[in-house]
Task: structure prediction
Amino acid sequence: MNNNQIETSYEIAKKKYSELGVNIEHVFEDLEKISLSVHCWQGDDVGGFENPNPKLSGGGILATGNYPGKARTISELQMDLKKAMFLIPGRHRVNLHAIYGDFGESAVDRTKIEVDHFQSWIDWAKKETLGLDFNATLFSHPKANSSYTLSNKSNEIRNFWIEHVKRCREISVDIGRQLDKMVIHNIWIPDGSKDIPVDRAGHRELLKDSLDRIFEQKLDSRYIQDSLEGKLFGIGSEAYVVGSHDFYLSYALKNDLMITLDTGHFHPTESVADKISAILPFIKGIFLHISRGLRWDSDHVVVLDDQLIQIAEEIIRSNELNKIFLGLDYFDASINRIAAWVIGSRSTLKSILYALLQPWEVLKEYEINEKYFQRLALLEELKTLPFGAVWDYYCYKNNVPVGKDWIKSVEEYEINTLMKRT
Ligand code: RNT
Ligand code: ZN
Result:
């Protein structure tokens, strides 16, 4: 598409939206403020750079596929992320996991990691003007094999993981200080049981105690915000998950922490979109892990589907964008991994744009006046408005490829860079 076509189509679209009272310039301003937390782990199938790398998965973390060219080192991963960022409009963040540190040749255990191991990431983020987020890694480790980490009945194992998370929080706050930005530190643990347990309460008491000990240390909230991520079930934890959504929501409310809602972590008929307005008045903040579960928490690449649009609509309607953070969480090893980042990120931004382009005042007015057919009719008409022309213009204006043009760019990168990694 040439620039002329992009601009002409945009002008027509702009007119149509302005007839509905939507000011596209304001929409762009709002969209530009959205900073996605782009998960580094899509780049290497949640492998990380621990050495020697046990490459154990577990707790339902399962990347399937064998697509060639995955990043094998930090510099390859940074190069790939940079490539992806060139194809995504806006300024975003990279979400790191503790296993992605710069550990050199030596094996550094999880209780020994320090901010130094992440200095190359911090320097890189500064150079690329990206933010960073952080995650303690409580899986892919011999001490996570028993399925219990922070809720383990062995004090030795539980203390090990408490120490790991404490260090991760300290690393997060250091990163935040150096970047002068807030870092979200997310905790997800795989703890649970394959078959019906008899002591559900016992493990939860231990998890609560572990969290109490972890959060005893008060850190500067300008640089770190902690978030807790629950889950319905995982592979190997079908019957019982210690850190369920109810558990963490209660803990987060009581302790003024954020809650992470992973869209793959609920029953498929449950609406994550509906949770936003239910939780938001009471919670410190919501961190979304946007994912796409196919039949289960399969972590497929995010696409612009109904679920995503409904979430975006609720985020925009909440008018509390300062309390909601958008992150991506999926891992597909069966397709080009850079494309996976780009597709999910662009689709997430499209969903926000779609939501921003709705005439809320008109729709709300209909609702107040019980004009329900009008509300439904307008919502349906919005679906065929020239939203694509607005998206194209937004990409153009932000100097990223318009429409499908980015596909070619990833194909070239695949030939010139990825295929040379053998
Ligand atoms: C697992 C959780 C968790 C992980 C990442 C790698 O079910 O979704 O967020 O995907 O920490
Ligand atoms: Zn998640």
About this structure: The two ends are 36 Å apart (CA to CA). The longest strand covers residues 224-229. The beta strands are 37-39, 93-97, 131-135, 183-187, 192-193, 224-229, 240-241, 258-262, 286-290, 324-328.
